[in-house]
Amino acid sequence: MSNTNILYQHGTLALLVPGLLDGTLTMDELLKHGDTGIGTGEGLDGELIILDGTPYQLDGDGKINILDGNFTMPFANSHFADYAEMMEVENIAREDLQSQIKEAANSDNTFFSIKITGTFKNMTTRAVRKSSSPYDSLSKTAEKQNMFNKDQVTGTLISYHSPTLFDGAAVSGFHSHFLSDDHNFGGHILNFDTVSGVVSFQQFDTLEQHLPTNNKEYMNHDFSKDNIIDDVHNAEG
Questions:
Q1: pLDDT tens-digit profile of 90-135?
Q2: Are 74 and 20 in contact (CB under 8 A)?
Q3: Where do the structural domains in the chain lie, given as residue ranges?
Q4: Using CA atoms, how far apart are residues 112 and 49, in angstroms rounded to an integer?
């Protein structure tokens, strides 16, 4: 039986800051560690969401693709889904929703995942077109992102909450991706006005952090020269 208390993470958000964007893990390998997740491809190639074991990508042109097992990533999270319903919501604003989730979860100092299935109003997402080596920094690459908007869209949000003491390895707070039910819209969520639907919750007591030790650029990089926290938060929006 799969361990549903473990959150698997390949790479860190910090390594994206200086532009260490080589794909260092295959999708086949990531799926050994979970049937649910989020991430980005080599060169920040779009925004990924894994639902029920199927990996989807919103590419920089706004198209949803199903990825094969050879697709590589510099950063990704995955886990085996075992969500429990937390609450039903109706036309709740994003900020109010996050406050209610944090209060109900009482899990600020550990990792947890939120799954929301429902209808979202005025949702804005983003994706970045794949860049090639030599890569720009995260802040420069993120400037080239394309944004997409739907007045109303029904689908699934997957979010990971990371505690403040892990800021840099992940982004503290919520990191959320989305896929519409019709598979025509998705990506990294920048904002939405309200949502009506079902909120489910899964807590983790273990973070399995996997690092790209076979990647020479990562192993030799001096992170003390990077403005990691600010750049991660600015890019993650």
A1: 999 999 999 999 999 999 999 999 999 999 999 999 999 999 999 9
A2: yes
A3: 6-236
A4: 16
Burial class (CB in 10 A: 0-12, 13-18, 19+), 60: buried
CATH number of 6-236: 3.30.1330.80
- The pLDDT score that the predictor gives to residue 22 is 97
Q: How far apart are CA 226 and CA 13, in angstroms?
A: 12
Q: In whole angstroms, give the CA distance from residue 210 to residue 164.
A: 19
According to the 3-state scheme, what is the secondary structure of the chain? CCCCCEEEEECCHHHHCCCCCCCCEEHHHHHHHCCEEEEECCCCCCEEEEECCEEEEECCCCCEEECCCCCEECEEEEECCCCEEEEEEEEEEHHHHHHHHHHHHCCCCCCEEEEEEEEEEEEEEEECCCCCCCCCCHHHHHCCCEEEEEEEEEEEEEEEEECHHHECCECCEEEEEEEECCCCCEEEEEECCEEEEEEEEEECCEEEEECCCCCHHHHHCCHHHCCHHHHHHHHHC
Is residue 95 within 8 A of residue 193, CB to CB? The reply is no
Map tokens 């039986």 to a residue.
1
